[in-house]
Amino acid sequence: MLHKGSNANPIHLSDAVGSKGTIIAKGAAFDISGNKIAAIDTDALMRVGQYGQGSLQILDGALAHIETLHLGHYLGSEGHVLVSGQGSTLNTDNELKVGFEGLGTLTIENGGVVNTGGFAGIGNTYGDPTAANSWALVTGAGSTWNVSDGFWLHYGSSAGTQHRLDIRDGGAVNVTGYFIFNNFNTDSDAILTVSDRGSVLNVNDPSSGIGISIGNGNKGFMSITNEGLVHSSSAYVGTNTAGIGDTLVSL
Fold first, then answer.
1. What are the residues whose beta carbons fall under 8 Å from the beta carbon of 69, sequence distance 6 or more?
2. What are the tens digits of pLDDT across the range 103-157?
3. Cα-based distances in Å from 46 to 8, 27, 65, 133
4. Residues near 147 by Cβ (< 8 Å), separated by ≥ 6?
């Protein structure tokens, strides 16, 4: 078990330009946490890909507990997380950002589960046209991403970027709070695909009432194909100035 005690510094995988770092947890506990008031200990975080290339793999029933997780933190960095196999679980008490300014990828497959205690975001690129595209994939029966406090699919302002979430082959994403595509007025794209029977996106937003907002300031695209399912308490398409929302539904 790797345990970070209270009041310790953040943990960075690949902290220098050109560096590479990997942690593989297989069939064991992997615990990165602060003290017992971890939910408000916002300084305790893990960055996978601080400046270089970082990788975290949670396999074969392993358990990872991380307070706050950023993948691909600075421009030019890469952060990759894989959660694969029945019982393999990643829990974060706070936010999970897939691609902060660098490239971030999250893959949940073969029954793996990610539980995000705060909000989740894909693509936090602010103002730099060289920022990387980021994505998350949830694929396979039992593969699940549970998010407790809203989901942003491209929540930055860099023109020319594309960020996406793909739910396939029976994967599921369950969001409490809003699910917003593309929140800024830039020439960029946010793409959601839900494909194949058993694949589902559930959005329950009892607080703000937004539910799903597609193209909330620029281009958002949602594709539901081959008996995929999207369920939301409410939905808006093409909201705010310059908002463009497109939805494809195909059996």
1. 45, 46, 47, 48, 81, 90, 92, 95, 96, 97
2. 999 999 999 999 999 999 998 766 555 567 889 999 999 999 999 999 988 776 5
3. 11, 21, 10, 21
4. 96, 116, 119, 120, 173, 174, 175, 176, 177
Sequence letter at residue 144: T
Tens digits of residue pLDDT in 159-204:
667 789 999 999 999 999 988 876 554 566 778 999 999 999 999 9
Sign of CA dihedral 54, 58, 60, 64: positive
* pTM (predicted TM-score): 0.83
| Helix runs in 32-81, H state only | none
For residue 71, the surrounding DSSP H or E stretch is: strand 69-71
Instruction: Using CA atoms of 155, 160, 161, 162 in order, give the dihedral in degrees to the nearest 10.
Output: 100
Q: How far apart are CA 61 and CA 229, in angstroms?
A: 28
CA 210 to chain centre: 19
